[in-house]
UniProtKB/TrEMBL annotation:
Database matches in InterPro entries: Sulf_transp_TsuA/YedE
Membrane topology: Multi-pass membrane protein
Name of the protein: YeeE/YedE family protein
Any one GO cellular component localisation term in the record: plasma membrane
Coiled coil: none
Subcellular location: Cell inner membrane
Keyword set, alphabetical order: Cell inner membrane, Cell membrane, Membrane, Transmembrane, Transmembrane helix, Transport
Similarity comment text for this entry: Belongs to the TsuA/YedE (TC 9.B.102) family.
Residue ranges crossing the lipid bilayer per the database entry: 7-28, 48-69, 81-98, 118-139
Length: 142
């Protein structure tokens, strides 16, 4: 069962958009999480400091919300940890082949009307829909 959270989702989306605009305005960079993270893997990028600050904010902000307001939107997964790790690794491979992640293509690239990002986002979404259909309706995992 998925909880319908329109206000929290709207607020989160607005904050993601604001962060993307501010990063572009102040640093001229796309807010693609895998690109940001890749600059923190040795050898460190010359501009590692803003990358570390951005990533720390992405991790600490939800923690502050939970501390301040409690578990506003609970998260749990019925999938075993091994499946989640395998899925994460597959996403990493896809990011390499796709030349970016959902945040880079879906948020920033589509906002710039990049044809490459629009196609990449359509592929991400179609793949997601197919994966959910197969796991829920054909295999019956969830």
């Amino acid at each position: 069962m998925t909880t319908f959270t329109p206000l929290a989702s709207l607020a989160g989306g607005a904050l993601i958009g604001l962060a993307a605009v501010l990063l572009m305005a102040f640093h001229g960079r796309i807010a693609g999480m895998t690109g940001i993270l890749s600059g923190l893997v040795p050898p460190l990028a010359a501009d590692w400091a803003w990358r570390a600050a951005f990533l720390a904010g992405a991790i600490l902000a939800p923690a502050v919300i939970v501390i301040a307001f409690g578990d506003v939107i609970g998260f749990e997964s019925p999938m075993p940890m091994g499946w989640l790790i395998a899925g994460g690794l597959l996403v990493g491979v896809g990011v390499s082949f796709g030349g970016g992640c959902t945040s880079g293509h879906g948020v920033c690239g589509m906002a710039r009307l990049s044809p490459r990002s629009i196609v990449a986002t359509l592929v991400f979404m179609a793949s997601t829909a197919a994966t959910v259909f197969v796991t829920r309706h054909m295999i019956g995992l969830v």
